[in-house]
Amino acid sequence: MAKNKKTKNWHIQIDKGIVSAADLRTAFEKRNIKKPPKFYKDIKSVSNVFPMRISPYTFKLCLGSKAIRRQFIPDKKELIITRKTDKDPLNEDVMMPVKNLIHIYPDRVLLLATDMCFSFCRFCTRKRLGRKYTKISPANLEKVCRYIAENKQIRDVIISGGDPLTLDDSDLKRILEKINKIKNVKTIRIGTRAPLSCPSRITDQLIKMLKNFHPLYVNVHFNHPDEFTPGSVKTLKKMSSAGIILGNQSVLLKGINDSESTMKELFYKCLDSGVRPYYLYQCDEVLGTEHFWTDYQKIFKIANELIGNIGGLAVPNFVFDCKNGQGKIRVVPDFIERRDEKSITFKNFKNKTYTYRNLNK
Ligand SMILES: *Cc1c(COP(=O)(O)O)cnc(C)c1O
Ligand code: SF4
Question: Rg (Cα) of the chain, in Å, rounded?
């Protein structure tokens, strides 16, 4: 089938992806940016261990923002490993009852539709994936759907990866249709970073297709206010005005977004584009990501500063994802001053107290 111009356009973002030190050199030199040979040597040694991919669109954003650059350009710190950890700390590969499907929680599952992304985030939880642009095979999709249909407590399916929007419309449609047909499935979600890393992927044609699956929940991934470029804002508004329900998942990254003021601005910007902040994750203990880890106190500090001070719609859930496939833990700062059988006393964001007393029965 002949590809129309728009379709072709987004494929370029993958076909012309920057995947090696040599590609990166070419990209910089095209813009008259000179880096010392040591820089490219480091890039090479890191990308030999942890694959690199930066879409041409993302590369442009990298030039304009340090916060974006640090998320995508390999750093030799990735090779400094002081704590023995795991390529798969969440034990996802073990929690797969069938290939491509992670089942940790009772009523919801996560489908790994592909191992490909438009650009690879250096802190990715699934850094271990092969990144060979493989997609779920029709036979495995059948098996996955059979498993979901047989386990009737499953009502929510998250299509993830990799980035499922790296799949063509026809592949994505096939997956959505198959899942949508399962009677016990009531909610479908898609996780994608395309609005940041490849906005051209969100074509009118794609939106038209996605609209057929309403209510469809799409979780995007914005980590820093700089990422709200005219291109991503336009794309997000296009999606939300088409009735797609947008949420945002962020990762707390040392030196990039680990301050209350950055987070506040990030969450406000989400809301301004029609995106509800959903999760802020503590960075997972994935091999090669230590330089992004923050002390555990930081997420509490941010939560403490935001809750009550900014509108509730702008506040996400704060979560740690447990090692060994035990799932997410939501944390909240301690707003409880004391409690006993009869009453509970809270301390609010202004340090004022309030006591609630049970009825005397
Ligand atoms: C995060 C996650 C989900 C979804 O959890 P919610 O808290 O409902 O967003 C489901 N399965 C896996 C494996 C996950 O990591
Ligand atoms: S877009 Fe998501 S899956 Fe892809 S590299 Fe980034 S965090 Fe990982």
Answer: 22
Domain count, the chain: 1
For residue 110, give the ligand nearest its CA. 1
Q: Over 80: is that where the pLDDT of 130 sits?
A: no
Residues near 270 by beta carbon (within 8 Å), at least 6 away in sequence:
222, 248, 276, 277, 314
User: Which DSSP helix (H) or strand (E) runs through 112?
Assistant: strand 108-112
Q: Does residue 258 form part of some domain?
A: no
Q: Chain centroid to CA 339: how far? A: 37
Question: How many angstroms separate the CA atoms of 58 and 68, rounded?
Answer: 8
Residues facing 331 on adjacent strands: 318
Q: What is the pLDDT of residues 55-106, one digit of tens each?
A: 999 999 999 999 999 999 999 999 998 987 777 777 777 789 999 999 999 9
Ligand 1 pocket member 110 (CB < 6 A):
yes
Report the alpha-carbon distance of residue 290 to residue 202 in Å, rounded. Answer: 33
Q: What pLDDT is attached to residue 6? A: 55
Ligand 2 centroid, distance to 312 Cα (angstroms): 27
- Whether ligand 2 lies within 6 angstroms of the CB of 218 is answered as no
User: Domain for residue 68, yes or no?
Assistant: yes
Over residues 27-60, the pLDDT tens digits come to 999 999 999 999 999 999 999 999 999 999 999 9
Q: Which domain holds residue 31?
A: 13-75
- The DSSP-derived string for 272-334 is HTT-EEEEEEEPP-BTT-GGG---HHHHHHHHHHHBTTB-GGG--EEEEEPGGG--EEEE---
Residue with CA at minimum distance from ligand 2 atom 6: 121
In a domain, 199, yes or no: no
pTM of the model: 0.95
Residue nearest to atom 4 of ligand 1 (CA): 108
Residue 22 counted as domain residue: yes
For range 307-326, the mean pLDDT: 92
Q: Is the CB of 102 under 6 A from ligand 1?
A: yes
